Amino acid sequence: MSIHSQPSQSVEDVVEARPAIVAELHHALTVQGLSLVDLAWEQQRLHESRRWSVVEALGAVDFARVSESDRHLVWNAGRAELTTKPGADRLERLADAECRRWLEKDPTVAAIMQACGTWSRYWNEEEAHHETAFNRISTVMKLERVSNATFIEFRKVFPDDDMLRTLTLLAISEVVAAVNYGQCAAIIEDPGLRALFKQVAADEIQHMNNFIAFAKALVDSGAYRAKEAFAVAHLFLRDGGEVHGSKRERVEARDTHVNWWDHLEHREGMYTPDALRKKEQLIFHALKRITGITVDSREAVEDTWMDLVGC
Ligand SMILES: [Fe+2]
Ligand SMILES: [Fe+2]
Asked: Within a domain: residue 298?
């Protein structure tokens, strides 16, 4: 039998199903026998099924109806989205480096890393939609310009870290973005602009689900420990933690990179998204999916983290 005609029941099953994230990635690689080519196909199908046009979305916005407060939301969103490209570029590079590091020791972990690096091309492309949509609206509405210096500053690349920590941080960053955009969509009056924010929020949820799937696969492999995911969640949820973004009393000054959530500007009388409870719930849910450990409060996250590190 030639290689081209080998039957593969599990692959056919997946191909015929609705496009979806491969949530049980470790199982798919080790038990179902999916290859990186199969996984790339699944990623492509899902990406294609979710594509939308920025040009068309902007055509539906009634610029005359956009309020002062809604313009402010758009302006903040455009600046925040500038930081996603360096995030995706860095993930691609880190995932490939980690893949090669694991290749001999654990080929399954190497394959998870390569699948993640491969998916980063879709993530990057989808975030380009968000960045250009919001910044184009700001330009058309003649809002405060984003200077080239700011653009270049916001493109600074995040320093490298452990891969499970990185994926958990990215999952949580998508949680915060998705909830913020959802909050915006709930108060924006213009239907076109509201639809854009809803679309972007849906994209961020899909990104969150991808990061959770890759992080879970690393934990399932046994090569990465749940404590790293809890460490990052604690960083966000502790008193004065990252989840409070630029509303914190002390925002760390960094020369290395720009955390978008530290740079949202709050202006007098303007609505700004918060919904901390919703963000917490989604972070607890993400931890459960990544590690299998249930937590239902910020204190439980801290206690679990302490237990896992053996304090
Ligand atoms: Fe985005
Ligand atoms: Fe995203």
From this structure: no
